[in-house]
Amino acid sequence: MQKIEHIGIAVKELALSVPIFEKLLNSTCYKTESVQSEKVNTAFFKKGETKIELLESTDPNGVIAKFIDHKGEGLHHIAFEVTDIKAEMKRLQADGFVLLNEEPKPGADNKLVCFLHPKGTNGVLIELCEEKK
Ligand code: ZN
Question: Residue 78 C-alpha to ligand 1 middle, in angstroms?
Answer without folding.
Answer: 7
